[in-house]
Amino acid sequence: MRLLAVIIIMTISFPAYCQKKYVCTIKQQYNEAIKTFNEDEKLIIHHFEEDEFMNGNKAALIEEYTDTLNKKEILNTKLVEGSKLPKINKYVGITHGQMDNDTMIVNIGYIMGNEEIEHVISNDNFATTFTEFYKDDKILKRDSSDEPTNKLTLTVDVQAFHYCKDGKTVYGYSKFTTEPYLRLDEFNSKQYLQIQRTYEYYFKFERQ
After folding, report:
1. Could you give the CA distance from residue 15 to residue 11 in angstroms, rounded to a whole number?
2. Does the pTM exceed 0.85?
């Protein structure tokens, strides 16, 4: 009888010993992505990690490229013709995140920048927007018939969005492509480029 009781206890307890420890896999991917940046950028990332005045804001590790859709229609531009792949830009952004009850809001931008990404996750709802803005320069249009503006907020096609928690720290990954829009060519003030932008990035922030 005592042997039977021991066997029952072992049977009940066994799953507790076999449970896999939760691992935030995006944390490792985030740390691996840091290695792909140059030394100056790594110093910025380190500053975000160590500066207590960052209030939980951490680095976003961003890759972005801009595809010009109307290359064949434009003249007198310094766009590189014949290139098969758009140029990929890598830079360090800053992530501000907040969690309130069932809602998480993540804002990604960069210092002295003119772009912002916002993710809003609430219960079963998920929304992402991309905003490009300038202080005074009205160089943006959604459509060719629109009046120029200095700010556009665009919908995006999200190919991926994942996040996980490691204690108070949240790690995430996303990839999306914006809807096409128009921006005045910086090399020719009489023509607009129709562009579409793709972002892929890891982000991190600490819940306060």
Report:
1. 8
2. no
